[in-house]
């Protein structure tokens, strides 16, 4: 079922962040949301995930189990990469399967705690964690930020390959990312 968003309004105090946003996110498709900073993209994701409540408007068709990559990596710093991913996986997923996903995007040191990783390595762990999560829908908020071009291309290919036939909502500032991901696009303005 497609997700339908109608007339979403959200304010924080006097600041109107979303002013009547409407849109459709197609089931089993990747949809990219683009727009200038401050137009409400992250707020919209937080509303869709149930982290924030809208002031007005309706949402229908929302799957029950979200997975996410936030703007911050939100990893357990003292855990290794496999343990960070395992926390959100379905029971029975083998460590070797998780390791193969991490290794496919260049994470090879699987025993050290992630606090010893670079920012780009942590980002990739967060992406694998979302992809392998036991979820019905994925929300990815600027998932490729902080990655160099070669790594970004590798990780974008990984995301496309591993989200086929899944519903994915991805926030980006990059038209190049939209083109590489071959996704539906929703363009948000200064005020929605």
TrEMBL record:
Keyword Nucleotide-binding attached: yes
SMART domains: AAA
Pfam families: ABC_tran
GO MF annotations, alphabetized: ATP binding
InterPro entries, per database record: AAA+_ATPase (IPR003593), ABC_transporter-like_ATP-bd (IPR003439), ABC_transporter-like_CS (IPR017871), ABC_transporter_ATP-bind (IPR050166), P-loop_NTPase (IPR027417)
ABC transporter domain sequence ranges: 3-191
TM spans (from-to): none
Keywords: ATP-binding, Nucleotide-binding, Transport
Protein name: NitT/TauT family transport system ATP-binding protein
Organism this protein belongs to: Youngiibacter multivorans
């Amino acid at each position: 079922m497609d997700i339908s968003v109608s007339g979403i309004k959200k304010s924080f105090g006097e600041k109107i962040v979303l002013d009547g946003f409407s849109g459709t996110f197609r089931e089993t498709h990747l949809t990219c949301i683009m727009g200038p900073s401050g137009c409400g993209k992250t707020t919209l994701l937080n509303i869709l995930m149930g982290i924030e409540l809208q002031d007005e408007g309706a949402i229908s068709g929302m799957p029950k189990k979200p997975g996410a990559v936030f703007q911050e990596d939100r990893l357990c710093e003292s855990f290794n990469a496999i343990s960070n991913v395992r926390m959100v996986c379905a029971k029975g997923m083998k460590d070797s399967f998780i390791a193969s996903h991490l290794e496919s995007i260049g994470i090879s040191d699987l025993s050290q705690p992630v606090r010893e990783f670079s920012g780009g390595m942590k980002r990739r762990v967060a992406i694998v964690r979302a992809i392998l999560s036991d979820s019905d829908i994925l929300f990815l908020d600027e998932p490729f930020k902080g990655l160099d071009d070669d790594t970004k291309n590798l990780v974008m290919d990984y995301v496309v390959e591993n989200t086929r036939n899944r519903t994915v909502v991805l926030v980006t500032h990059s038209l190049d990312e939209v083109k590489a991901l071959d996704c539906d696009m929703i363009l948000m303005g200064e005020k929605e």
